[in-house]
């Protein structure tokens, strides 16, 4: 079975000819977008050029030859999203007018264009004039998918099973009608509403990464930025799990090689005046702490006599876990929390006691501790409220603002997570439940098909039976 799975994955990789056509399409889209910008924005500086970025399976590397191209136009005027100091407007410039952009694209040689301006995220679909022609879905400055894909792409670099699992599970879900395409529903006054798929490729990628984290096959690349952040000069290593834990690894708090801090501001679905900050930081796959985690995992497996799982074993374990072991009513899928977490815990949660202890330390000893991490003896008897009277340090102010914003931003609270059929928390936009469209009938089908797929492995059947539409029984070959 393992050889069959790898063969299936390799056979569906896009050829160089298709990759060249996609690159040609990206170049044509970029030129068209900037030509349009010159018309609608007179005197626009060349330094404000729009970029067109790919995301989704193409960026992650789990794309197939037939995959569509998901692209987003990056607006340099809103590089950090809708900050609180920016007045919200639905169309900040004519670039966001998908219908006008569609008409301009038609003059540039693109065809089969369809604008969906009234969807939650306005989309322009079409085909390029390249050979072969490439189908694309374009949005303007909606960077959610880009940020998420960048994170998943880093996980795909850490373990070689991530990409083939995504391709195989997409084929499995398609064969069992779990990956039904999104639908457009006509509402009043001609409004079109996009009904998302219950199990999109992005949701599946989060489920796969979370499962592999749970099994100790992947680290948590966001761990330093979910846990309390200590002083930048405190370079002592902090063990995030014991020696016997599956996912144990050591990491430096605020390591110098981590990504520079970036915040993306989104708008609340309930109120456009409410802005939600999102921490985009994560470790790169080739960073020192991740390499150390990989080496530590290798040593642990070597000392215990454990062998690396085959692709077939990993896939079978996935089906067994979500078909039998996962407690849907008690647990959530959360890549940001390291895989599987209890429902009662808020995503990206920081213990109030630990946060207040850190804040108290900063108030008493200041934001900067000595490099050796030791508190000077003369500082031990300082008035803990002296900093309040003299004015908080900028670092403390920023930490308070960030923590307050995080608490206020959770528009989808713990109670709503408790009532959902299935909870898969977006690792960056942590107020979003990716599994909100998992209704009861779909959940039963998903769990049942996972159990059926695990049974395919148990009975010695092949990949054809695994990916085929469910049947009433099995006949062993």
Account of the protein in words:
By secondary structure, this protein is an alpha+beta fold. Among the domains are: 15-146, Beta Polymerase, domain 2 (2-Layer Sandwich), CATH 3.30.460.10; 348-409, no CATH class. It is 40% helix and 13% strand. The chain has 16 helices and 14 strands. The chain has a five-stranded mixed β-sheet, sandwiched between helices. Strands 13-12-14 form a three-stranded mixed β-sheet. Helix 5 packs parallel to helix 7, helix 6 packs across helix 7 and helix 10 crosses helix 15 (440-458). The two termini are 13 Å apart. Mean pLDDT is 77; it is low at 227-260, 345-352, 382-392, 407-414 and 471-477.
In CATH terms, what is the fold-level topology of the domain at 15-146?
Beta Polymerase, domain 2
Q: Which class of the domain at 15-146 in CATH terms?
A: Alpha Beta
Order of strands, main sheet, comes to: 1-2-5-4-3
Distinct helical segment count: 16
Q: Based on helices, strands and strand pairing, what is the structural class?
A: alpha+beta
Low-confidence stretches: 227-260, 345-352, 382-392, 407-414, 471-477
Shape: globular
CATH architecture label of the domain at 15-146: 2-Layer Sandwich
Mean pLDDT: 77
Number of strands: 14
What gap, in angstroms, lies between the N and C termini? Answer: 13 Å
The gyration radius over C-alpha positions equals 24 Å
Fraction of helical residues:
40-55%
Indicate the proportion of strand residues: 5-15%
Largest sheet: 5 strands, mixed
Q: What kind of oligomer do you see?
A: single chain
CATH homologous superfamily identity of the domain at 15-146: Beta Polymerase, domain 2
SSE string: HHEHEHEEEHHEEHHEEEEHHEEHHHHEHH
